[in-house]
Task: structure prediction
Amino acid sequence: MRADHGPGAEGRVGRPWRKWWVLTVALLFIGTGCVVLGLRHDQHPLAGPVKTQRVAKASGTKSPIAPVKANAIPLIAQRSTPTELQIPAIGLAVSLSTLGLNSDGTVQVPTDIQQPGWFRLGPSPGQIGSAVILGHVDSYQGPAVFFKLRSLVAGDLITVNLADGNTAEFKVTSVAMYLKTNFPDQAVYGSRGVSALQLVTCAGAFDTQTGHYLSNIVVYSSLVALVPKANPPS
Amino acid sequence: MTRPLTRLASDMARRCFILSVVAITAIGMLVIGGFVGTRAASAAASAPAAAQCDPPAFPTGAGFQVSCTVTIDNTVTAAGATSSTVTATSCLAAAGVLPPSGCTTTVDTANQLVTSVNQCNGVADGGGSNVTCSVSVVNTIPTGTATSGVTVNQCVGSGGGGGTQPTLVCAPVASTTNATVTQCNGSANGGGPSTRVQCDVTGAATAEPVTINQCNGSSNGGGSTVTCTATFTNNVVALPVTPTTTAPTAPTAPTAPTAPTAPAGTGAAGATGATGTGGAGATGAGGSGVTGLTGTAAGAGGSTATATPTGTSDVIPSGAPQTGFGGASRSHNGDLLLAGLLTLFGATLAMTFAMRCRRTFTVQDD
Result:
């Protein structure tokens, strides 16, 4: 009976198990909520680019005469089909396909979700102008080849192997996300008078009605080195 | 006997309860921090001014090949947002050793427009040196942005000290106060080869005010040359056009798409100002007589015009690429699942304590 617990020690103790029951109910409520939310087959937008900037390592060079790659060549490449894309920052090393235009004037996208494609009607990587490589961010079931593209930041290295054996090295200058309704065609594909490489994929909120994301992420990068193919030992 | 037991059980229960509350709070903070927190955004690098190839980083002595280029990409969106990218390549080597030897390239981005460039001032005055520097300003601006004229102050007080005329090849030779471009003044006065000062400015108007100050007071030793250029380019970006709806027309037989052919490395000749006249004689004729380190500075006074393939950039696809199918955005949230399972485990522990505690008190009551 409750009257048994007077103002003495028993009274102070009361019924301590009640606290545990309250705690149990609270935890059950929270835990169940987390599990339900975690399992919910719903759309959450793919985040935009990481807004972090890194200073290029070379800017910290103390000596005015900086070392260069022994086999570096002038920073203009001959036209050559890119064959492989490497982005060490996200652990990507993948072969490339080629892309053209659809009949409606839009750019083709890769048929293989795990293989990016180079827009072959523009410059090849290393030439003056904007070379563009497009890849999928995901499939119907999960991440695809450019899923981690949005985590790149300024200063990250992008390497493109060309069919002629040379390698073009780019450094990320910026990463931007645009609504598809406001996609900057000219900025992505147009020439700015320098050798640039743009990587493009999807991001943002997913529209279940159209089956497409509402935004694109564009990684802008500039050429920093052209490394010729290694000559075979004579 | 009952009272100490009861107190012991009570203390134990209270401690456990406090520990549980602390643990739950910690887990909750971790979960909330994981979902709400985003990666800290560092402050955007401010780069209103760009500078390179000036002392003390670059030498004032004799027999150097100084080659520096900087490209300023200033961008203003239709919404008024600004950004800039500075791509700077600075090369330092012995006279006659051309880039890419001794080159360092840096790329910096900022959310501000670059407003001034300073480079190649007061360097390599010791004789037998060649200073070749260029600045390219590319303004990407929306339609309707006002532009202002580019004023020039260059090649004043340069090319003196003797030597075969003409020593100056500048377009124009102009003296203007507070000019947009101030370059090649008081340089290459040590005497030496013909056309040892070659400077020009390309682009009559700029959309964003960028002051260029380069190649002043440089390469004043005998047999030295100065070759500097400043280029302004305005890329006007049309505002997005809202597509108009048209009445559907009767379907016609599909025609084969006329896909453009792949470019075969064609394009306009790239480099400007490429009238390489190789004026960098390292003998210091008529000058102070300080010879270059290698004495092989032939051709350093100008680069040869190599018409490099520039690819094509005139094929601009329309619309945005559809490069996703939603699988990743609809996937399960692993972090949330883990947090939920941990919390449910805690609930099980709490329930166990509750049942044991109640049983203890029930026994005591009996």
Summary: The longest helix of chain A spans residues 17-39. Residues 133 and 199 of chain A are 5 Å apart (CA to CA).
